[in-house]
Here is the input.
Amino acid sequence: MCGIVGYIGNKNATPVLIKALKKLEYRGYDSAGVAVYTGENIIVQKAKGKLVNLAEKITGEIIPENLKDEAYTAAELSLYEKTDSFIKGNLGIGHTRWATHGEPSDTNSHPHTNMDGTISIVHNGIIENYSELKAKLQSQGVVFQSQTDTEVVVHLIDKYYKEEKDIFKAVRKTLQALEGSYAIAVICKDYPDRIIACRKESPLIVGVGKGENFIASDVPAILEHTRDVYYLGEKELVVLYSDHVDLFNFDGEKIIKELSHVEWDMDAASKGGYRHFMIKEIHEQPKALIDTMRPRIIKDGKGCPTDVYFEENKMDDVWKTAGRVVITACGTAYHAGVVAKYAFEKLARVQVDVDVASEFRYRNPILNKKDIFIVISQSGETADTLSALRLAKENGLKVIAITNCVGSTVSREADDVIYTMAGPEIAVASTKAYTTQLMCLYLLAIKAGKLRGTLSQEEASKLLSELETVPAKIQQILDDKDNIQKFASKQFNKDKVFYIGRQFDSATSLESALKLKEVSYMHSEAFAAGELKHGPIALLDTKSLVVAIASDPELYDKIGSNMVEVRSRQAVVLVITQNGKAFKGKTDEVFQIPECSSVLASLLTVVPAQLFAYYCAIQKGYDPDKPRNLAKSVTVE
Ligand code: F6R
Here is the structure.
C-alpha cells in the first residue's frame, strides 16, 4: 500500500505535492519522492524515510528530530512550504512508499523514470508479471535502476511511446501488458499540459479544482484544495489538464461520471470514511488477502491453480528432508503460528513446535540442523522474535521470516522472507496483518505438502482454488456485520468472555480472546473446548459469555456437548459456524460464516471475532486504535 498524488495548475506543484503526500503517510512512509516538470526538464527528488527527509533533501535544511512528528508540526509545514523555492513547475507527481519489491532506499523510491528521464511515473499496487516483463526489456537493452516491480511500467511506456508517438496510446498499450493491481500516474516531457492516470484494483480519485486538478490515492490528500471529486472506477483512465479532465475506459472510449462532493471532515477522510483505523483495516482484509495470495499461485493454461511460488525461495530441498518445523512469534503472530501447526501437520505431515518467542530463547531449546525455523512478525522488529531468530541461526538452522515490513531487521537476517502484503497497519490491534500471515502460512503448508509428497496434485489444486474464494467470503461476513454489532450492544457488559474451540478453532479462540481484551478491556480467555470441564467451567455464571467456534463438521457433536455444559451454567452462548442448524437448542445466538473446508476456515472464523471486539470497544466508549498500555511495535524485551 503506497500513496500517490498528482497536481496540474497555476501553483508551484512541489509544496502542493509534498503537503498532499503528508496526508497519505498513513499508507506508507518508508520513502517518498516527487517529479516536477520545470518547463525544461522533469526534476526528480526522492529520499528514504519519512516525507520530512524528502523536504530536507530538497531544501538542504535539517530540522531537529523533536520537531518531526506523525502529526503535522509547524516546523515541518514551514519546511514543506520552503520547497517552493527549490523546484519550480506547475505539473508534478508524488509518492509515499510502503515497500513490497525492493528494500526502502533512495533508488527504490518512486517516481521512476525512463532511461533519458523524459517520462516519469508513480505507482501504488503490485505488478505481478514484472519479472517476465523485466527480463524481456533487459534483453532489448533497457537498463534498470531499481529492484522495484514498478520500473517495468515506465520502460514499457517508453518503448510503446517510441512506437506509437502518442503518450496516451503508449499508456493504454502498457496497461494491456500488465498483470496485477495498480493506480499509476504518468507525466511526459513532451506533454507538459497533462497528467495521465489510471487504476485497476488500487484506489484513485480525481480532485477537480478551479484552474487546477489533482489525482490522489485518497481524499484527504486534496481536501485542502477541493471537495469535488471523481471516484475513478475499475479499469478507468483520466487525463488531467489544468482547466478540465477527460475520463476514459481502458478501451480508450470517453466516459461520463458524476462529480461527488465530499462532506467528511479531515479526520474521517484519513480513515477512508471509517470511524477508526481498526474497522478500516478489518474491511481491508479481502484486498490484502488477494494481494498476498494472487502473485504466488501458479496456474496452468486453463487457469487452474497448480502450485505455489515464493519470490525468495532457497528452501525447497530443505523441506523435503525437514525433521521438524519450529515456529516462534509473539502475540497475534504467535496465534498465526498455532494455526500453522495444525495446517503443516495435516497437509505436510511434519512435526511442528510453536513457541512464544520470549520463552523460547531462555530455555536452551533443543534444535537440530534439519529443523526449519519460521519466525512471524508484522513489524519485523519485535525484540524477542529477533533474538529467537538469531539463536536459531547460531545453531545452524535455516530461517524463514513472515513479515509485513520490507527491509525490517527480521527480513534482513532471515534466509528466506515471505512478505504479507497487508500494507501499513495503523491500529495497534492486529487484524489484516494476522489474516495475511495465515494466508502465507497456508500457502507454505500447501507447498511443503507437495514437496514432501503428502499432498497430491489434485488435493493441492483443490485447496488453492478454495483459498482463492476466501476474500469474497470474508466480504460476505463483513456485509453481515450489523448482526455482530447488535450482539455486541447486548453483551458488552459481560464480566467474562470465554472463547472455546477444537483443533484449528482452538487457535482462533486464542486470537479472538486477545483481540477482545486488547481493545475492550473485557476479561476474556480462550480454552480448548475439551479442557473446560477440567477447571475453567468453575468460572461460568450468568455474567459470562461463551463464544464457541465450530468450523469442523466432524467435531460439531463434541463442541455441541461443550456448549450444552456451558448453557446449563446460565452463561450466554454464541456459536460461529458454517451450519447454525447443527447447534439448534444449544446456543443463544448463531453467527453464520460461508461454507469453507475446516482446514482453511481459520481465515474466516476470526473475522466475526475481530468485529465483536471492535464493537464492544465502541459500546464501552474506548478508542480501539490506541488501547491503553500497548504499543504497535515492541522493540524491548
Ligand atoms: C495484537 C498484536 C500483538 C503483536 C505482537 C507481535 O493485536 O498486534 O500481539 O502481534 O506484539 O508483533 P509483531 O508481529 O510486530 O512481531
